[in-house]
Amino acid sequence: MKFQIIFATGNQNKVREAREILDETPFFGGTLVKTMKEVGLSSDPEENGKSFEENALIKARALAALLPKKDQERREFAVRHGFDPDIPIVVLSDDSGLCIDALNGEPGIYSARYMGHDTSYTDKMNAILERMKDVPDERRGAKFAAAIAAVLPDGREYIVRGEMPGRIARKIAGSNGFGYDPFFYLPEYGKTSAEIAPEEKNAISHRGKALRAMFRKLKEL
């Protein structure tokens, strides 16, 4: 099934990653991906789920509910925003975060909200490093986790999950990534996930794994 995507996010880094992964294979190459802001929609539901999966689905459902349902209105919406009116539009959403073993899984689903939405990630990371200053390397295990939810035009819903294991570094390093990447150490690379090339990160990242799993599921349809 060919499809087009509206991503329930304003984060251009996430959209860029999705576009790069879609372009890896001829079947998905050229798939149109737009953010909700790019199509003039705004959605900010309360993320009151207890897991990444629940929160991803909350966001996808909220955005899908804003799309026109009547055929003529749906076609007009598609044309107005540069979509092909004859190809289904799938709503995607992700919820992701950092889970640190020594902190009992924190910040987890509260990763973006840790210390407040307006707190910079540099401040968040420095606060975590201070909390973990006495934690030895062998107990600094962590993982990034991402859940991707999809809502199809006919109401079908799908959820997949991807994870990237690593550990918390002793200091912040690198500028290629975003969020908590600069202190997330990847032993197999000997670098943080902000120090490796974007294409290397796409190949192993939690979001990359989840997106590939979702795109495979959509292709099966």
What would your notes on this structure say?
With 221 residues, the chain is of the alpha/beta class. The protein contains six helices and seven strands; from the N terminus they run βαβααβαββββαα. The protein has one domain (4-220): Maf protein (Alpha-Beta Complex), CATH 3.90.950. The protein is elongated. The termini are close together. The relative contact order is 0.15.
Explain briefly what this protein structure is.
This protein is of the alpha/beta class and 221 residues long.
Strand and helix layout:
Elements: E1 4-7, H1 12-22, E2 33-35, H2 52-64, H3 71-80, E3 89-100, H4 121-131, E4 141-151, E5 157-168, E6 184-186, E7 191-192, H5 198-204, H6 206-220
Parallel strand pairs: 1-2, 1-3
Antiparallel strand pairs: 3-4, 4-5, 5-6, 6-7
Helix pairs in contact: 1-6, 5-6
Alpha-beta classification: alpha/beta
Query: Mean pLDDT across all residues, rounded?
Result: 92
Widest sheet: strand ordering:
2-1-3-4-5-6-7
What CATH architecture do you see? Alpha-Beta Complex
Main β-sheet description: 7 strands, mixed
User: Uncertain spans, ≥5 residues at pLDDT below 50?
Assistant: none
Describe the global form. Answer: elongated
Alpha carbon gap, first and last residue? 6 Å
What's the CATH C level?
Alpha Beta
Helix-strand sequence: EHEHHEHEEEEHH
Helix content: 25-40%
Total separate domains: 1
Query: Which strand-content bin applies to the residues?
Result: 15-25%
Rounded radius of gyration (Å) = 18 Å
CATH topology: Maf protein
Supply the number of helical segments. 6
